[in-house]
Model the fold of this input.
Amino acid sequence: MFDSQRCTACGTELSGSLLACPVCHTLVHRDRLSAIAAEADAEATRGDKARAALLWREALTLLPEHSKQHDAVARRVEELTLASGAQSKDASRWKTGGIGALIIGALTKGKLLIAGLLKLPTLISMLAFAGVYWSIWGWQFAIAIVIAIYIHEIGHVAALRARGLPASAPMFIPGVGAFVRLQGPVSTPREDSYIGLSGPIWGLGASLAALALFYFTHNAFWVALASTNAVINMFNLMPVWQLDGSRGIRSLSIRQRWLLLAVIAVTGVMSRQPMLVLVGLVALWRAFEKNAPRLEDWPAFARYSVLVIALAAISIMPVPISGR
Ligand SMILES: [Zn+2]
Ligand SMILES: [Zn+2]
Done:
């Protein structure tokens, strides 16, 4: 519908998807943007930070990503969202109701979970090592893996809730795991990274819990679970497609992407975990991305690095199968 649009400043003809004039860099939606800015400021002054954040999110879609204006508006969105999240009822219910309420909430939308369970053999058979453990421990192992994947998904939901963003119930995809859809308003690169990496962080927590159970029970089942789950979470760290790593890397600058690559390379050499070759190759490709942010996101870099190192370490733990 913007087919025949011309730049208001220099008259250059603009094709449909452009957000800024290629000749004079004037913003295409300049008028709409200043209207949104005025409205958002008025809402913020009135005290409705949630509404102001929503308006700024709309502005994000009209700004070229990684332009100075986009960076500034993204920061505004994050500030307002956190401030409004602290006020809102939803956030307080989440804090008092805790994880239990969230799990029950997710299970009530259990159709998807059941559909996922029925397809679990497909998931398991795709992972040869898991197939071996399946043959040793049978359905108990399968159930435990599903629970671990579910914990990963709840990590995403918790991150969305903490940011005051709506989330769907976790959905299982055979062979890949599961995903939580982000619905509604667009998210900023930093939010996206935080939400994306929260799944693997909770997944790492599930592996650590399994290792703690091994420590107390000396049952090799728990080591097998911890390492299988670590490999699944590492697969999700590949920064490509809709995988978590793709969102995780979004807020990293080029310099940070090269540093991350170094972390992956050193961890790969030390652990000899073949999955890190895949993660590293895709990360190398993302280190050449033209649209990477200029602002640096060190908390995201730290999260990504810790995940690579910790998941690799757990994934190569020897499983004492003969003990059973
Ligand atoms: Zn122009
Ligand atoms: Zn995930």
About this structure: Confidence is low (pLDDT under 50) at residues 89-97, 108-126, 172-177. The CA atoms of residues 67 and 82 lie 23 Å apart. The beta strands are 171-173, 177-179.
